[in-house]
Structures are given as C-alpha cells and as structure tokens.
Design a protein that fits this description.
Length: 265
C-alpha cells in the first residue's frame, strides 16, 4: 500500500517539474525547498513520460504566478495571500513575504501530507477544507487586501463551478483579486493527454477559456491582465533548450494554449 494512497498523483507532477528545472535551468527558476523534498517523489513515470517542454510549462506557471503575487504583496502594507488547492506548492519560500499572511488551503488528506513534510512558517496557516465551500474565509481578515491563487485546480471542474465560486467570494471580500491558470480548448486536450501519460488515468480536466475578456464579463469581474506562460522562458532559455521546446513555447503563447488570468473580484 502506498503512503500516498488517497492523494492525487497530480500533486507530484508540479513538484517533479520544480525539482528538475531547478537543477537544469536555475537561471530561470530555482526552488530550494522543492529540491529538499525530492525524496518524496515515488512515481518515476512522471520523469519518464515528461518532456522538456512539459516540465518547463509546469514551472512557467509558478514563475509567472510568483511575479504577480510579489507585485501584489509589494503594493500593500499588509495583505492576505491565499493558495487554494495548495498541494505541495512552496511559493511561501520563494517570495519576499513582507507583512503578508499566507493561507494554504487543500483537502484534509493533502494538508496532512503537507504537514508531514513542510513546516508551517511564520505568518502562515494550513487549512483543511474544500476551496469551493468557503469555510476557509473564516480563518482570515477579509477586510485586508486579499490575493487568491488557484494553480492547476480549476481545470478539474466545470465553468459553472468556477463562476459560482467567483460570485460567492464577491460577497465576502472587500478588496480581492484572483490569479489562476487556464488553457483554451486545444490546451485542455493536450494537458489531459500529458496527465494520462504520467500514469494518472482518472484526473480528467474540463474547464477551459477561449476568450479571457468574455469569461471576465461572464464572471462580472475586471480582467486586469492575461499573460502567456513563456515570454521570459523563451528569452532566458532560448539557447539552452531543444528545438521542439522552443517551438512549443512560442506556439503555446501565440495561440493562447496556456495563460494566466488576473481578475479584480
């Protein structure tokens, strides 16, 4: 019986990517905490079935979310940063947190695994719960500026679930923003194919966005920014990655196969 039974294998895909890219391309992305957790990765299929492009794509998401989170923290004297569906994410250790309060939310079995291997930091709180039922909101001061980060999570749900979540949080927070990753229809097909290749046949994804402006309008939110994953990766790694990876990054950005949306809620 695996010690990870009941915990999605998808937790270890981004951790594996952060470890590998930190070793191969530290000039682009370096995650010391992820390297310290390398021994947790048991599923060797992730390494075997992951291309250079898919590893960089996974880390490019974290790279851009880190930039956007740091910008939010720098703009406010005190704020909340809420990682919803946090998994084994280690952004707490990568960011200059200043006076921010970090709230890490995930399902009970995931938080239990997290508690086993990651210490709770100063001004950080782990919360067991479902991001959609909003019980976690009781654990923070909703009058503070709040940034919600949802990385690699919404895709497993349907558009109506995401829209209801946005409608619900609107009624709770006075000053909140949300950053999250999404794909278009082509991107969701590729991602489903990739996850299956790593050995996980049950984690099907549904949610995608074809038009970010139309989605923001539907959600009754302001679209602050929509960015592709790879602008900086292309510039920094242009001479260090394979031709397939370079072409794939450029095509993904040009066609908006992968994007990060920043909404004012």
């Amino acid at each position: 019986m695996s010690e990870y039974e009941g915990v999605e294998d998808t937790l270890f895909i981004p951790l594996t990517a952060r470890v590998n890219v930190s070793k191969s391309f530290p000039e682009y992305f370096f995650d010391q905490k992820a390297l310290e957790m390398e021994n947790l990765i048991r599923n060797k299929q992730i390494d075997k079935k992951s291309s250079e492009y898919s590893m960089i794509a996974n880390v490019a998401r974290s790279y851009n979310l880190d930039q956007m989170a740091q910008n939010f923290i720098d703009k406010h004297e005190k704020c909340n940063v809420v990682n919803l569906g946090v998994g084994l994410e280690t952004s707490y250790y990568r960011l200059n947190r200043k006076n921010s309060m970090f709230i890490e939310v995930d399902l009970p079995e995931v938080i239990e695994l997290r508690e086993k291997y990651i210490d709770v930091g100063e001004n950080e709180k782990f919360i067991k719960g479902d991001l959609f039922n909003l019980d976690w909101c009781d654990e923070l001061d909703s009058t503070f500026p709040t940034l919600m980060i949802v990385s690699g999570v919404f895709q497993y749900f349907h558009e109506n679930d995401v829209l209801k979540f946005l409608s619900d949080v609107k009624n709770i927070f006075e000053n909140a923003e949300l950053i999250f990753d999404a794909t278009n229809k082509f991107g969701i097909k590729y991602t489903n194919f990739y996850v299956k290749r790593t050995g996980n046949t049950s984690a099907r994804m549904y949610f995608y966005i074809e038009d970010p402006y139309e989605f923001a309008k539907k959600a009754n939110c302001k679209l602050i920014e929509c960015r592709g994953f790879f602008k900086d990766a292309i510039n920094i790694l242009n001479k260090k990655v394979g031709l397939f990876t370079k072409i794939s990054m450029k095509v993904a950005d040009n066609r908006k196969n992968a994007m990060i949306l920043h909404l004012k809620i």
